[in-house]
Each structure stands twice: as structure tokens, then as C-alpha cells.
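Shipment paperwork, digital attachment
Item: protein structure file
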Amino acid sequence: MANLTVARNLCCRVTVSNKISNCVAGVTVVSQRNAGTYNPSVVPRGRGGRSSFSGMSVAVFGASGFVGRYLINRLGREGSQIIIPHRCDPYYVQHMKLMGDLGQINFQEYTVKETERIRDIVKHCNVVINLLGQDYETRNFHFEDIHINVAGTLAKICKEEGVGRLIHLSALSADITSPSKFLRTKAAGETVVRREFPEAIIIKPAQIYGSEDRYFNHFANQRFAGGVPLYFSAWKSVKRPVFVTDVAQGILMACKEKDAEGKTYEFYGPKPYFLSDVIEYIYRITRRPYIKYPLPKFVLKGIARGFELYPFIPWLTRDMLEVQHSAEIPTEGVPGLEDLGITPKTMEMNAIIGLRRHRADASYHFGIDDIEPVPVAKS
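Attachment content:
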């Protein structure tokens, strides 16, 4: 979106310096082009908060996902003007309308294959954030489609339209040699985005936990299966779970950081844990019996293959198993949350937020301090 001024009987497109004026339905839309969000020519207005203008006109692709709602809320309370492209039913995203002041959040229907529609959305923005991703493949969209092709197309369009800042969400364990197709395509997507938009900001979070995650909730729900089957490597796989609010705040700060262009950031929790210890802690929080039994990889993959045949959202896939058991090792020298002024929250203090509903005695207040903490993984 952009700054809005009333115009009468005009329908034109005028280019002046680095600003482009578009007239739609009697409203002139002035797009701050090629101006980073920190440019002094984009002057914030108001006292701050949702009823102000922060200087950012942001399009958030993938806002209907897990991280999206937290990010939109933070952008909205900063006074940003936000476009939310979506292909789902409007009822699934209408709750986000309340996250910004009246008229600050605009919903646009689109599909990832409509390049001209994408172009029409981003040409009014000085910041574009790509949260698009999926942890399972469907008949219509494979990992390559979303993580590589769409990411590259979006980056190319943003470059052509003069978008000031592009932020792309990847994964901490992304590796072109990974046994997980999800992680391989995420790594390839980073390369494509860098090629099309060299100044893009790449953000690589560890696996994210929170109220609506498919991470901690997934393991907690396995109590219905009588336990959590794991690879033998679960007792050696180091995990760095990161809280969803930290990721959302980190993305917001990356939008405003002056020297962030072209950088890669890694977001991860403050302590390393072994995967087996993380799951055991989840069951201590939920006050339910934990049965752990390691299985050979081929047996567990055979079980996951059966779930893949489910016609709707699969509960488990073979690729999910590889992601779950992949090690999350931060890269030395790569900036993280602390470099953006954020102190990452510990899992011991925040896991309860999403796991409380799984408790056997949910109405009974059981202090977090009474639960044995997770042992830190030692290399």
C-alpha cells in the first residue's frame, strides 16, 4: 500500500523521482520507491502505535500461516500499512483486520501463479516479506514450486518494481545436501532469491514453537498413539527451538535495521538441547506418561508413508521425520536475534503457552518452577 491522498476524476500513473503515483477509484496511491524504510524522506507520522504511520508499506506473503499472525500484529501496532495477499477463504484471515487501525490492513486475493497480480501488489510497497512455505507436499504444489520457483519469481518482481527491502524466511537447517527435501529446497530457494535480489535479507529460524505450531503440539498429540517413536539419532540431534514471538519481532527489526541489506540472520533459542530431551520435557509439562521407544529408520518411515496416503493434511510424512531429526547448529559469525536487539526467550518459560491445553489436569495450576528443566546438550 502507501500514502493515500484524495483525488477527483483522475486515473493515471505518474513517475516523479523515486515515487510512483497510481490512481485507483479516485484515490491517488503514492508508492515510496527505492526508499529503504529508514530513509528520512519517509517520515513517520503520529504519536506512535496503531493510529500512526511508521513509514512502512508492507506486503506479507504467507501471512495466513503460523508466523504470519504474530508478524502482522507487530507491524500493525507500529502503524504500518499492510497488504495481506491470500488465496484462502476470507474468513480465515479476517481476524487480522483488527491488528491495525481502520484502513491500514488491506486483503488481496491472489494465487502464486498470477505474476501480474503479484506485481500489482508489490509495486505499492517499500517492504515485501516472504513467509511462504509448507512442510508437506500436495498434488498442486511441491516443495520446489513454493520454496524455489515462487520465491525466485517474487524476488525478481520485487527487483523489477523497485521494492526497497525484501525479507525471505528460510530455515536454520537448510542444506542442499540434507536428506530432507524440505531443507534442500529451502537452501536452493535462498540461492535463487540472492540471485534475483542480491540485497535481500535472508532469515533462517530454527524450528519454531508456539500456540499453533506443528512442532511441540505434534509431539504432545502423539500420546494418543501410546508414545513417541523416534530415530536412534534423536539422542544425538541438537535442537535450538525458537519462540514464535521472537521470530516475528526479529523480522520486524530486520525491516527497520539500516545495515541489514544483503545479510543473513539465524534465529534460534538461547540453549541447545537433544531432541529426545525436548520431547521428554514436553511430557513433563503436560503431566502425561512418556513412553519413548526408538525404531529403525525404515520402520518409522514405513509408518509415515501410511499417513501420507491420508487425503487431507497428513499428520506425519517421511520428510517431516527428517526435519524433526536434523541438527540445528548455528553458523559462527552469522548475526542473530541479539544483533537485532532481541533477547531470545527460553523454552522452559514459554513452552507452557502452547502446551497447557494438553495437560491431563489443565484446570490445576502447576508452577513451571516445579518442573525439572531440560538438560543442556554438551558437545
